[in-house]
Amino acid sequence: MTYDAGDRSPADQPRFPPRGAPERRAVLRVALAIGATTGAYGLSFGAIGIASGLSLLQTCALSLLMFSGGSQFALVGILGSGGGVVAASGTAALLGSRNAFYGLRLAELLRLRGVARVAGAQLVIDESTAVATTQPTEPAGRLGFWATGLSVFVLWNLGTVIGAAGAGLISDPAVLGFDAAAPAAFVALLAPRMRGRQPWAVALTASAVSLAAVPYVPAGVPVLLAALVAILAGWRRRPDDASADDPDGQPA
Amino acid sequence: MTWVAVLAGSAACYLLKLVGLSVPQRVLGNPRVRRIAMLLPVAVLAALVVIQTFTTGHRLVLDARAAGLVAAVIAVLLRAPFLVVVALACVTTALVRLWL
Fold it and tell me: Per the confidence metrics, is the pTM higher than 0.90?
């Protein structure tokens, strides 16, 4: 399913809603609200990064360069529990693969070229896609993408610095139960995706397979086996699960 | 080594974003590829939850982190904000650890 440009040609419409238009204010307000929420969430990422043994600079570099919450939590979680470089970066990439599909959907709406595409690509995340693809008009959608992407980028990075600096002051993070933070974050990230029977079947099978494999395979491999479960499940067509055909149905 | 993971992972994530904006529609438009891409986060996140809660190294263990997970699930079911979910899990784990 792609963004339908309708029968208007791209040339007849403005790039963004005009100044003073009510939809412009509405989009900007949503973008700021979402940025503030993810800023709070950046605080916990910063703290978890430090608790997992990364330096302040490494934790902040992830928020700047990787800029995709699920991938970042996975990377620090795996490094923190003794996983290797390949397992950590590979799992981050697996979780980031959905952004490629968001980009696919956004490409027609944004029509970016050159430098704008190189910069805009970094802002292709759950939140910017959700706002961009749920606006009533294309100009509002484009504004929604940039405003949400930039607001989340700034506040997520700010939250990370504060969270990481704060956690650095605590001598033993395990005493505070910080080792439970990453799994809790994953539960929160998972929740909005658990609609319908197939996600539950996949989640339960993947959990069982990966736990069963932990004693026998190198660190990181259990997560790859979980990915294999998703590939096998997605390979088969499920007529009862039409929503699975819409990758942007539930960006969270 | 941590830097290698940080930079390699970041590069991979950025390229995936750029690829989506750049490739022709039909390459990623295949419904099978889309279904798999939407199920991948579910499978990977679920596996990470259980691995980081119930294992230490190569051993399966049941410790205070399990209580933290239960707290997180309850908080999510009650639609608590993200930060509250994470904080409750940490506090619960710390308290259970103190107790045991």
Answer: no
